[in-house]
Structure to design on (274 residues):
């Protein structure tokens, strides 16, 4: 883990060479939400390829850049593209940027993603605030020797998502008059979408939505004592009894179409951070 801390410091130092902005909020932009980074003012954009230790982002709809600047007056750092396990990344690699963001000064993490709606009440385009998650990736970024400088050996996971900031996100949905659910996200390894039997199983396990990201990042945030808010956009309905086909393009398109709602929620979280 000492090696990991060194890598974190080297990435953070490379970022500091490009800008002296000290971000307070870190934002991980999921599929369809990359456009939020275009609203960041005074932006410095750094392609991942220009930073040490970072792999290329290969996922559809993920630009692969770090964008630093101000959003509604708040200094932020946004990941325009993340590292998924299905791209061949380890859980540790997929979560490393959480520690880099903390090293840069971030004190709150906002995570967004696209997810399949398992709860039969959920419709394409609805946002879901994560109340909790189930780690079905069978990977954990904290496996290995723990670095006590980064966080404790056995982090508590009884409340991985910040309730007060989540309330601020929900209040934005009420104010702007759109439906927003609060539910449980099942983190899957991917890259296949689930079978009908798997969606049925996930529903029985208590999941409301399924996706292929977020869980390693939320675990790292908890390890690093960073309050975390996570918001899914429901991009496909996964009723086992009438399951249609799903594709990556459909997911990106649906997330893009609904991105205004999630943007409003992210901005409400920024305002609540104060
Ligand atoms: O980065 P996210 O989670 O938004 O990526 C999307 C959703 C799934 O994880 C994956 C397949 O649709 O891409
Ligand atoms: O149905 C899904 N399953 C897993 N990941 C997803 N990402 C978008 N939709 C889905």
């Amino acid at each position: 883990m000492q090696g990991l801390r060194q890598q974190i410091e080297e990435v953070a130092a490379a970022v500091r060479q490009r800008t002296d902005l000290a971000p307070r909020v870190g934002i991980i932009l999921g599929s369809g939400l990359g456009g939020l980074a275009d609203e960041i003012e005074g932006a410095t954009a750094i392609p991942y390829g220009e930073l040490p230790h970072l792999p290329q982002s290969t996922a559809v709809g993920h630009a692969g850049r770090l964008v630093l600047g101000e959003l509604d007056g708040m200094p932020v750092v946004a990941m325009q593209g993340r590292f998924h396990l299905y791209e061949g990344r380890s859980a540790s690699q997929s979560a490393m940027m959480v520690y880099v963001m903390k090293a840069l000064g971030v004190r709150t993490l906002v995570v967004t993603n696209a997810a399949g709606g398992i709860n039969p009440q959920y419709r394409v385009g609805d946002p879901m605030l994560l109340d909790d998650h189930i780690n079905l990736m069978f990977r954990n970024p904290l496996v290995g020797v723990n670095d006590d400088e980064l966080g404790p050996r056995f982090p508590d996971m009884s409340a991985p998502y910040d309730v007060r900031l989540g309330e601020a996100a929900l209040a934005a949905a009420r104010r702007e008059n759109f439906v927003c659910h609060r539910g449980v996200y099942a983190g899957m390894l991917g890259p296949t979408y689930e079978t009908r039997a798997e969606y049925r199983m996930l529903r029985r396990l208590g999941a409301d939505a399924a996706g292929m990201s977020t869980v390693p990042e939320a675990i790292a945030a908890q390890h690093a004592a960073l309050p975390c808010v996570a918001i899914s956009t429901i991009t496909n309905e996964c009723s086992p009894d009438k399951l249609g086909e799903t594709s990556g393009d459909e997911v990106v398109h649906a997330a893009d179409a609904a991105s205004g709602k999630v943007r409003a929620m992210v901005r409400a979280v920024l305002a609540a951070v104060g």
